[in-house]
Target: Ascorbate transporter, chloroplastic
Amino acid sequence: MSSELLHQTAVIHTDTRERCQHALLHSRRTRHGSAFVAIRCQRDSRRSYNWQIKREHGCQGRRSPCCQSSGRSDADIRRPKLDGSDIQHTARQEDPDSNGALTLDANPVSQVVEVVKEARWQRRFTIVGLCFTAFMLCNMDRVNMSIAILPMSKQFGWDSAKIGLVQSSFFWGYLTTQVAGGVWADKYGGKMVLGFGVIWWSIATALTPLAASLGLPALLFARACMGVGEGVAMPAMNNLLSRWVPVQERSRSLALVYSGMYTGSILGLALSPHLIEWLHWPSVFHIFGSIGVLWYLVWEWKSASAPDEDARCSKAEKELLAKGTLERREGTAIPWKQLFSKAPVWALIVCHFCHNWGTFILLSWMPMYYQQHLGMDLLKSGIFSVLPWITMAIFANLGGWLADSLIHKGMSVTRVRKIMQTIGFMGPALFLSQLSHVKTATGAVACMMASQGLDSFSQSGLYSNHQDIGPRYSGVLLGMSNTAGVLAGVMGTAATGLILANGSWDDVWNVAVVLYLVGTVVWNVFATGEQIFD
Model:
């Protein structure tokens, strides 16, 4: 066994932390140079304590950290034997030719010793990483229009109403595949559906300049086609992670993937102005679309819909995921009536609408706000539009780690989800309401950064809840709630253009704030973190 690639883990299940520690005190090490040290104690769903013991290679004698911590010499330390049997009450002497097998003697309450060999880089990390990059491309291709619309509107003579029409046309297609994406992912697998979505929207992105040259109707159609592809991304990703990520890693994995969207917004908003300055606005769509085609080739090579379909996934990881994730079932009927009869499902739907209204307004209109209201030029509006998404990328991952930590410490999933989402609603409501009182560009950007940073806690609240309440139907549930979210995008971006034609930016923010407050009440009254669908 290579010490660089593999390690050996013993997982001991006991009913109390003290007895688990007692079991560890009986672990032994030999003079041959391999040591076992406890690396994690975790309380599982059965309320037993699981200690993982990692075999470290290269421990040399009594001066090594493991020997110093134990206070024992080489002569009185024996390496325990990991043989997969029940833990014995008395230590067994190691056979000199046993190649360092591990023996554990422990309190009789200890029931199981499991032996696994696992690669340090797990296959699920690859899947999560590829989903992260897919979501990064998703928002790169989505936000580039919010920058390109500035020179395009001048070239084609569009007013605010037509700009709002162009911005909202993406959501027409996005709306049509929300539920369908979840159904397709459950039926055909997340790999196929997410791959289809990325290649479809990438081609539509690359063809956007051609469509614009043909006229406004052709451009609206191209943007709607792009929305069709992006519409399947969230349901397909949710389906994939429900099979690839164990529950104890769920919040931070989802937060990481969703932070790909924020990273994509950062890159799209930062790169687009420079590409427009150097190569004119069509280059933004050509370059970003080409990157998506390259991603698709890697996805087809490296991904799988589930661990049992991936020959490169180790047996140990498959066993781990089999315990903490959902197995794939072919042809499972969707219980639509039951889904729509539950209050927590309606909480997801209503709150997704309330959340996305403000989020999509900022996503689509922030550069225009900076240019029209604050008087910034193209480059400055692009640069300052990046900053709120940087805070979102950072805070989303902090929120994910915080949520998982609270759950590991014993706080109920329901309470954690409510805390995270309350922050995700009340934070933006507070800081967007201050924009009417801010008169400087610095103050406005600071409010935007604080609003979006706190908004990202929603990834550990609302956006993690689909897998909590119905892991088998998580893709469909996300499709249902995101359909409402997309309606908010269609209505919000179009309504913003109409509001600005007859009102002010303060009116735009006030509508968003009211919806955030409504969402806070609905979420705390009706949401739950308990599984309600088998």
Q: What stands out?
A: DSSP finds 20 helices and four strands in the chain. The two ends are 40 Å apart (CA to CA).
